[in-house]
Amino acid sequence: MKEVEVMVADESHETYVDTILHTITEAAKVRGTGIAQRTHEYVATKMREGKAVIALSKEGQFAGFSYIETWGNKQYVTTSGLIVHPDFRGLGLAKRIKDMTFTLARMRWPNAKIFSLTSGAAVMKMNTQLGYLPVTFADLTDDEAFWRGCEGCCNVDVLHRTGRKYCICTAMLFDPAKQHGEEQTLKFSMESLKES
């Protein structure tokens, strides 16, 4: 079994940005689904800001990635761009990355609503396990900067035709104000973020 370390990315990981972008683009082609395109600088900035999670093999091979972003004056957070390199699929790595991005978002913005737009059943299942619920697009941020990110997706015409009410993706939302008791305590401490 391949050993993979999952960690919060930083500027030292910028050398992986082109590989990440290529892996995301190729996965979208294989699945036949749309994906919002991100630039090299956008992903590198997420790394520098401590808003990304990267997975690397012990030998330094790229294995997976995701990032977080805030919207609407930090009232909303997205966990986005989840990708696992084909050589590392089937190892439970997507769940490890998703758990870490979710925890990172909760630690940095504990009162923010966390949302996800996805067309993938596996991501929907992971989101559900974390406490996300399916919602309408109206329940998401109205921050125009977020919605401009959808312009790079091949399905953006659906979003436009429906007046941004729905699209191919399913909207899912975690609202910390609606969680019950202590059951939604964070799964990881900051130390475990660094150790994973």
What would you say about this model in short?
This protein is α+β, with helices and mostly antiparallel strands and about 200 residues long. The protein has seven helices and seven strands, in the order βααβββαβαβααβα.
Explain the overall architecture:
With 196 residues, this protein is α+β, with helices and mostly antiparallel strands. The chain contains seven helices and seven strands. The two termini are 16 Å apart.
Spans of at least 5 consecutive residues whose pLDDT stays below 50 are: 181-191
Q: Into which percent range does the helicity of residues fall?
A: 25-40%
Strand and helix order: EHHEEEHEHEHHEH
What structural category arises from helix and sheet content? alpha+beta
Strand order of the largest sheet: 1-2-3-4-5-7-6
Task: Summarize the SSE layout with pairings.
Elements: E1 4-8, H1 17-31, H2 40-48, E2 52-57, E3 62-71, E4 76-84, H3 93-108, E5 113-118, H4 121-130, E6 133-135, H5 144-148, H6 156-161, E7 170-174, H7 190-195
Parallel strand pairs: 4-5
Antiparallel strand pairs: 1-2, 2-3, 3-4, 5-7, 6-7
Helix pairs in contact: 3-4
Key terms:
single chain, 196 residues, globular, seven-stranded mixed sheet, 34% helix, alpha+beta
